Amino acid sequence: MTEIIRQTAVDLATKISSGELSAVEVTQAHLDRIGEVDDRVHAFLYVDGKRALAMAAKIDAKIAAGDPVGPLAGVPVAAKDVFTYSGAPTTCGSKILAGWLPPYDATVIRRLLDHDLVILGKTNMDEFAMGSSTENSAYGPTRNPWDLDRIPGGSGGGSSAALAAFETPLSIGSDTGGSIRQPAAVTGTVGVKPTYGGTSRYGLVALASSLDQPGPCARTVLDAALLHQVIAGHDPCDSTSIDAPVPDVVAAARSGDVTGLKIGVVTELGGEGYAPGVEQRFRESVELLASLGAEIVEVSCPHFGYALPTYYLILPAECSSNLAKFDGMRYGLRVGDDGTASAEQVMAATRESGFGAEVKRRIIIGTYALSSGYYDAYYGQAQKVRTLISGDFERAFAHVDVLVSPSTPITAFKMGEKVDDPLAMYMNDLCTIPSNLAGNASASFPVGLAPEDGLPVGLQVMAPPLADDRLYLVGAALERALVQTWGGSLLDKVPALEVSA
Amino acid sequence: MTAVLTYDEALAAYDPVLGLEVHVELNTASKMFCGCSTVFGAEPNTQVCAVCLGLPGSLPVVNARAVESAIRIGLALNCTIADWCRFARKNYFYPDMPKNYQISQYDEPICYNGWTEVALDGETYPIGIERAHMEEDTGKSLHMGGATGRIHGAAYSLLDYNRSGVPLIEIVTKPIEGTGAKAPQVARAYVTMLRDLLRALGVSDVRMEQGSLRCDANVSLRPSPTSPLGTRTETKNVNSLRSVERAIRYEITRQAAVLAAGGRVIQETRHWHEESGTTTAGRNKEMAEDYRYFPEPDLVPVAPSREWVAELRSTLPEPPVERIRRLAAEWGFSDLELRDAVNAGAVSAIEATVAAGASPQSARKWWLSEIARRANEAGVELEDVGISPQQVAEIQALVEAGTINDRLARQIFDGVIAGEGSPAEVVAARGLALVSDEGALSTAVDAAIAANPEVADKIRSGKIQAAGALIGAVMKDLRGQADAARVRELILERLG
Predict the structure, then answer these.
(1) CA A316 – CA A208 distance, rounded (Å)
(2) CA-to-CA distance for A143 and A259, rounded, in angstroms?
């Protein structure tokens, strides 16, 4: 029998509900694995084994009593540390939230609990989800299980690394500019950014409200679809949540039939700056899709070239306001309160020592961009370009069912390589940002290893709003064909992380 | 001490222009963006949740009832209702604002470009309405241990977030010009009208002393009505109708003195001090804080349908000036009587008293004399004296039934205000009923005649006006608790 930790979520769920495995057993296996490898991977910021095992025992009892349970009952899951989970520290990878215990559950967390999943703990991330390498976490970086000297992507490097290191079969991320898809790409896992409004942001600590979206991370397309199904759907607590049925992502993931599907290759997302291995794997995957019956056309999205600067005005503007609440007055860190300092001085001292450099950089840029006299030139202008980018998508989707591109221009880079060069770091999100600006659905699927460095490459699929199912259709088609070619999961090639005796 | 001119000197030299910003707390059961209760006066920090505490991850959801109230207020002020508008974030740091931004509206208010009018001294003054927009209230800070009660210099501060997120409508007038010396009274009449209108709409408790109606007064002076607008000051914290008038009056004299001395009015926020009747400088607005407004990304736009707006229009009470005209006709008040009632802000109280069964003239008499006197002495509004229109009507009914007379009625006012119960209970408890027992009255009358034989002889000889002395003696004997008319009848029966 395959080791518990290497099984898919859907297999684990089947075995748990049939009694072949217990949820406690499965949970314990993952806790053991975390204990074994996480000191090197550092995917987790917080693990509560006792609470997880208690949850698992409760689910086992439910199953034993014949009570109805969810389709992923008993399967462990990890959540990015940006979601509130009552009673568990929620830091967002920042010092400023040290010690804060949220008194309420994020809607996404609530749904995991309501569907009988077992929450193992919280995963590492760039501080307040700002970064593409998880090196901006105030609690130390996460490492890529493919090569511990390389980054696992970001901001949700913890959620993807935990999957690639077999510490959890499922995890939850949040994607503001690629924070689910880019880590998925560089760790050889699946990551989906649902349509904006498809999953609830309630309890997701905001980076940029108009861009943030929670989504599923998994090792297989079907596992991601099942998790998507659990967490998606209308939430009255989030005004921007869409009151519409969740697209049938599970059926799409089971089908994988792309016959007649019209796929557009985005001209602008490729060429200079893209690693040859990334382009090669991408090209091969597109040819593979064509051989599976899809119709391939080239599509130009002329405004995508402005996506990065647009994003880096809108995001800082919103985050400068969203992060204003972290002032040391009500929760988290408080610095300089010596009994004589004024409230203003305490606020300033707390923010000075509680925020990292990248967070400060974006707060300062955003504050500037929103300032009277500059608003029209920066924030106002960026919103106009955002509309143009949405227009590019609308025109494209009038002709094609989905768009595809590489998920990232390059594979996982070395730790420390780009920390001092914010612009080089921002380039990692070149391909993923347009979908955040437009709010459409988008995902990254593993399509092999780059020949030059043997590191994972991701292919990005972009679908129209509320057509999230099409992502899974393409993802499943690729997965089915590629796993055959590879003779097994790509993640079987991840080097052993266990310390050899 | 700031030099001031007398009001007449100030008005002789300058023309005042006003701008009034009124914040109305809506009386919705729940807050603007969450389900917490809005009831006033609860234990601090008991009506709070993740949303109104601005906890990380929480999100606002618009209270549809608050939008409805905003639209009804806008319609009642003849505003255009936006087909589509957004909330905006107003960013600034303050400990009683848990998110360090306030969700408000900026360049897309839900109601804009309206008008209303107020009646004063028999004249009607038009008031333009710039906008009425929705926003959330902040929490309340109590700064302890400092001299000023403000955050600077305080040893520590107590924060109560019960008020955080209570729905507010801010109603902003266009510049109010052409009122001349009447500016302070027009301002007071406007706030009074607004209060009555909001009460008639049923959208707010409009209790100025509880802060559910708050007024900021912008005042500027210019040499003449044709000159460009002068620099304005914004006086905050003006929390009674009386203060609106006093604060504007003071600010006119203060600015006039500055200008007359060749000085320059500084654009700033000023704080009103009820006790001294003066204003002092607050935040300097020339170094204006930049609120970095931008559309609230956590909320979807508000787009009221035409049908809904039309439906809400049909629920409006009649316009204030028309209402006053109608009431005057119904009540048969003279112009002078009406003017006094309007200027005293007593129209609604009289209306409620009449509705409770009193005659219009008796209602007018009580509110404009007895109750107005007490309000003036206590420095409070009529409705805060501690007696309700229903109780006034009840007292008047007791007078008309002959149970009490006007003199005794005053003692009943004392009792009701002192919290001794309903008027009937006060009558019983204090033993204030008129002696209506004919036997007791006859005994007293006979005793008075016997004690004053000369007076009795005069009356017998036809000098009926001498009866007054005997009536006085009877009333004294019965400690005032007799119906004087009946006493007179009894005397004349015996001596006529």
Answers:
(1) 8
(2) 39
Backbone angles phi, psi at A171, to 5 degrees: -150, 165
Q: What is the rounded average pLDDT of the residues B261-268?
A: 93
For an interface test with A, give the residue of B48, B100, B102, B289 to mutate (most A CBs within 10 A): B100
Q: Give the residue from chain A lying closest to B299, CA to CA.
A: A239
Cβ-defined contact of B60 to A371 (cutoff 8 Å): no
Closest residue to A239, CB basis, from B293, B294, B298: B298
DSSP alpha helix (H) spans, B132-240: 183-201
What integer best gives the mean pLDDT of chain A? 96
Tell me how many domains chain B contains: 3
B412 is in which domain, residue-wise? 318-430
Same domain assignment for residues B156 and B237: yes
Structure confidence by residue, pLDDT tens digits, A201-214 = 999 999 999 999 99
Catalytic residue list contains A435: no
What one-character DSSP code corresponds to residue A72? Answer: T
Which residue in the set A202, A205, A321 is minimally distant from B91, CB to CB? A321
DSSP conformation class of B302: B
Are A56 and A22 a contacting pair, CB within 8 Å?
yes
Please give the DSSP secondary-structure letter assigned to residue A148. T
What is the C-alpha separation between A296 and A138, in angstroms, rounded? 44
- With beta carbons less than 8 A apart as the criterion, state whether A26 and A4 touch: yes
Per-residue exposure over A59-94, b if at least 16 CB sit within 10 Å of its own CB, e if not:
bbebbeeeeebbbbbbbbbbbbbbbbbeebbbbbbb
Report the distance separating Cα A435 and Cα A259, nearest Å.
Answer: 25
pLDDT digits (tens, 9 = 90+) for B103-156: 999 999 999 999 999 988 888 999 999 999 999 999 999 888 877 777 777 888
Query: If we measure between CA atoms, which residue out of A381, A367, A366, A325 comes closest to residue A206?
Result: A325
DSSP class of residue B466 equals G
H or E stretch at B142 = strand B140-144
Exposed / middle / buried, residue A5 (Cβ in 10 Å: 0-12, 13-18, 19+): buried
Kindly tell me if the per-residue pLDDT of A401 is higher than 90. Answer: yes
Q: Which of A253, A206, A201 is nearest to A231 (CA)?
A: A201
Instruction: Report how far residue B383's alpha carbon sits from residue B240's, in angstroms, rounded to the nearest whole number.
Output: 12
The top-level CATH class assigned to A4-257+447-454+463-493 is alpha beta
Residue type, A356: G
Judge whether A179 counts as a catalytic residue.
Answer: yes
Domain membership of residue B1 (yes or no) is no
How far, in Å, CA of B213 to CA of B234, rounded?
17
* Residues B265 and B368 reside in one and the same domain: no
| Distance between first and last Cα of chain A | 24
What's the confidence (pLDDT) of residue B1?
44
**Domain residue extents for chain A:** 4-257+447-454+463-493
Phi-psi region of B237 (alpha: psi -120 to 50; beta: other; left: phi over 0): left
ipTM of the complex model = 0.96
Identity of the residue in B55, B61, B91 whose CB atom sits nearest the CB atom of A102: B55
Interface contact flag, A370 B297, Cβ < 8 Å: no
Single-letter code of the amino acid located at A64: A
Task: Find the helix or strand (DSSP H, E) in which A344 lies.
Answer: helix A343-354
Size of interface A-B (CB pairs under 8 A): 100
What per-residue confidence (pLDDT) applies to B3? 65
Q: Determine contact, residues A470/A401, Cβ cutoff 8 Å.
A: yes
Residue tagged 């001119």 (tokens): B5
Question: Does B56 contact A97 at a Cβ distance shorter than 8 Å?
Answer: yes
Cα A14 to chain centroid distance, Å, stands at 26
pLDDT digits (tens, 9 = 90+) for A93-138: 999 999 999 999 999 999 999 999 999 999 999 999 999 999 999 9
What pLDDT shows up at residue A501?
42
Report the C-alpha gap between A184 and A452 in whole angstroms. Answer: 19
Q: Do A83 and B300 touch (CB under 8 A)?
A: no
Q: Is residue B2 part of a domain?
A: no
Residue B61 sits at the chain A interface (C-beta within 8 Å): yes
